[in-house]
Amino acid sequence: MVRGNAGTLVAHAGVPSPPEGGAKSPSLPRTSPSLMVPSSLSPSSTSLLRRRKLLGPRALSIDGAIDSTSSDTNRSGVTGGTVPGKEKIGVLLLNLGGPDKLEDVQPFLYNLFADPDIIRLPKALQWLQKPIATFAAAARAPQSSEAYASIGGGSPLRKITEDQAEALKDALDMRGQPVDVYVGMRYWKPFTEDAIQQIKQDRIQKLVVLPLYPQFSISTSGSSLRLLEDLFKSDEYLYSMPHTVIPSWYQRPGYVRAMADLIVEERNKVFEEPDKATIFFSAHGVPKSYVEEGDPYKEEMEECVQLIMAEVKKRGVNNDYVLAYQSRVGPVEWLQPYTEDSIKSLGQKGCKDLLAVPISFVSEHIETLEEIDMEYRELAEESGIENWGRVPALNVNPIFIEDLAAAVTEALPYVGTMGPASDTTMVPSGSVEDLLAAYDRADLALPPPVTMWQWGFTKSAETWNGRIAMIAVILLLVLEVTTGSGVLHNLRIL
Fold first, then answer.
1. What H or E segment, with its residue span, contains residue 284?
2. pLDDT digits (tens, 9 = 90+) for 204-224
3. C-beta separation of 184 from 195 below 8 A
4. What SS3 string covers 300-365?
5. Quick count: other Cβ atoms within 10 Å of Cβ 281?
6. Which among 7, 32, 239, 455 is most buried, taking Cβ atoms within 10 Å?
């Protein structure tokens, strides 16, 4: 059964066995003895995340347990491969999620904006997180709905991720490693909470968590891992189940080779003079402040591009290439150069052939199908670029899927333990606790997801929701007008 998108967590040995039925444990500490962060790896030591030697290839372990509070039954999973008498092993794939239909757009946006890792508020204003999410979702929904309508009325991400899960299960079966694969989305169905609940119901005994983000960022893999940590520590069965986490895997040779294959194939197919095309890597952006606070995303992205281009050059391809960052929102400084600025600059310099490569994404979704294929292509043509090509996302590329299967296989011996360092095994070192400690210092509460857009179930609830929203809007407007910056400016609402 396919249920979930993955990151990998590992629980240390020595945790007491769960009581019959997996009863919930009392409030578990955020940091167990095996999760204590050495002083040399404290959050202030951002080199933990910034250097490949520390975030390099080995599996780490943490304690944790997950319990689901969601009642949604729209789950995805690929099961049926576990051999009787053997340990039941699960693989949890983690991903962002996307609205399946236009009616889902606004609640999806609310779940996104309600995440404190996405919209960061000063401590004194954190009580405004939900009202701001409500307001921002309502303000952005029309524009976002139009974008989703242009690609067919919904995101294809769920279907593609389920296909990836099934392909991964088949690849592991071929390796003689039967597993159940689960898909867990952060902001839409099938929610991570639902995947975790199914993992518990299936009595999985070991779990590999694999985020489908090649590079680690606090705003993607980090947010999903924090949700997992919260869920894990609330349930004793899950708390005592060994886990292993693969936080990033951009260095893996199969992934690099698959990307190089697609680039060379598209380059030779699209352009009459392939050698003249500029290879344009477009990565999802994050605010510069995230990187300054220790997010390794920028360094991992730059190294990823270098590895791919080194593989491309082995094939006699020596095109110029550029890395830029897309999806910038608001006036705050994000990672640069920005995609739109870079496209304009290339046009001004006389570039006529451009091959776009979506480097942050392994599945087609709104940012590839609409933002790159429509918005950026139109901008490129306006900027004087005459010939446009776009490398497809990996989706279920056989080399890519086989490499994920290899990553899972390599991680399994170290579930529940600290894996050895290796130059070839790209299972990153550093525990989930280390990763979370680098950015989740406030340990903010994560809200439960919503599946339907509604202000309240009763007239009284609707009245109070309206009052709270009005107060929030007034306070926001006062802050925005007096400071000239803030969340509403960041969202381009003011």
1. strand 278-284
2. 999 999 999 999 998 899 899
3. yes
4. HHHHHHHHHHHHHHCCCCCCCEEEEEECCCCCCCECCCEHHHHHHHHHHCCCCEEEEEECCCCCCC
5. 26
6. 7
Q: What is the Cα 1 distance to its own chain's centre? A: 21
391 token code pair: 């490398």
Q: What share of the chain is helix, strand, coil (3-state, %, to 5)?
A: 45, 10, 45
Q: Fill in the DSSP letter of residue 373.
A: I
Residue type, 263: I
Q: What is the pLDDT of residues 230-266, one digit of tens each?
A: 898 898 998 888 888 898 999 999 999 999 999 999 9
| Angle ∠(277,280,281) on CA atoms, nearest 5 | 150
State how far the Cα of 65 lies from the Cα of 488, in Å rounded to an integer. 37
Alpha-carbon distance 158 to 363, whole Å?
10
Backbone dihedral angles phi then psi of residue 12, each to the nearest 5 degrees: -75, 160
State the distance between the two ends of the chain, measured CA to CA, in whole angstroms: 46
User: The tokens of 325 are what?
Assistant: 């960052």
Inter-axis angle of helices 297-313 and 253-270, to 10 degrees? 60
Res. 454: pLDDT tops 90: no
- Closest among 357, 364, 197 to 278, alpha carbons compared: 357
The label of the residue with tokens 């830029």 reads 324
Three-class DSSP category at 428: strand
As a whole number of angstroms, the distance between CA 411 and CA 207 comes to 10
Question: Strands, DSSP E only, in 75-172?
Answer: 77-78, 89-95
Considering only CA atoms, which of 174, 163, 20, 5 is closest in space to residue 90? 5
Burial 428-442 (b: 16+ CB within 10 A, else e): bbbbbbbbbbbbbee
Strand stretches in 81-134, DSSP E: 89-95
Q: What is the pTM of this model?
A: 0.77
CA distance 103 to 114: 18
Contacts of 490 by beta carbon, 8 Å cutoff, 6+ apart: 329, 330, 331, 332
Per the listing, tokens 């991992």 go with 300
